[in-house]
Every structure is written in structure tokens, then in C-alpha cells.
Amino acid sequence: MSTASARLPEGRYGRSSDERADHKLKIAGTVLGAALLALVGYFAYHYVVESKISAQVITFDATDNAVKVHLEVHKDSGTDGYCTLRSQAADGSEVGRADFRFNGSATRIDRVVTLRTTAKGTTAELLGCHTG
Question: Which of 13, 51, 97, 112 has the greatest number of C-beta atoms within 10 Å?
């Protein structure tokens, strides 16, 4: 005696609901993946393109009421902007903060700037540089 098959005949009744659901999930996954890729590309492009000024602190020398900071700035020619520096005391409190402007056609600026402080600073930290 033979047993009856639980499967439907191939091609007779179209795709099953599981196959249709799998196909819809694949389409939805592809669309969402493409949108995520486009979003990451958009933010990466703007992060790279908008970074027209970069800088680094080379050295610093602290006194009782000021910190002299040797700052090296790289920027696009003709781009004006500023860099924000801050100094902290030994206990971590902020004792000074200032913006230093950089303009002109030079692409590399190597300058010593003086950050006035309210107490002896033990650090010189570059918070960031911005165009404008």
C-alpha cells in the first residue's frame, strides 16, 4: 500500500504563501539596505568635504595666568576659520577657553598662541576647528 504525498503538485497552484512572503522580505531587505548605504555615503561625503580646517597641538607651556600653545593648522587656501582651545587645572576644572582665528591664503599655519587662564593650567586641549 502506498502513502499519499502531503505536497501539492508542482506548478499547479502557484507559489505558496511562504514563498510569497520570502520574496517580499527579500525586496524589503534590498530596499532598506540600499537606503542605509545611501545614508552612510551621504554622511561620509559631508564629513570629508566639510572638513576644511584641521589642527593639532604640538607643545604647550603653562604659567600661572596663561598657557602658550604651539598650534599647527592645515586648511584650504582662502578658507577662514577658528580653532577653540581650552586649559584645565590639576583638579579638572576649566581655567581658560578661547577661539583663535585663522585666515588668509596660507594652507599651513604654524603659530604660538596665548590662552589666558584664571589659574595655573596643566593642559592645553584642542576642542575643534570650524570654518566661518
Answer: 97
For residue 130, what are the contacts with CB-CB under 8 A and spacing of at least 6?
53, 81, 82, 83, 84
The residue type found at 122 is T
CA 60 to chain centre: 26
22-46 pLDDT, tens per residue? 888 899 999 999 999 999 998 888 7
The answer to whether 122 and 89 have CB atoms below 8 angstroms apart is: yes
Contact 81, 75 (CB under 8 A): yes
* pLDDT 10s digits, 88-98: 999 999 999 99
Separation of alpha carbons 78 and 106, rounded Å? 7
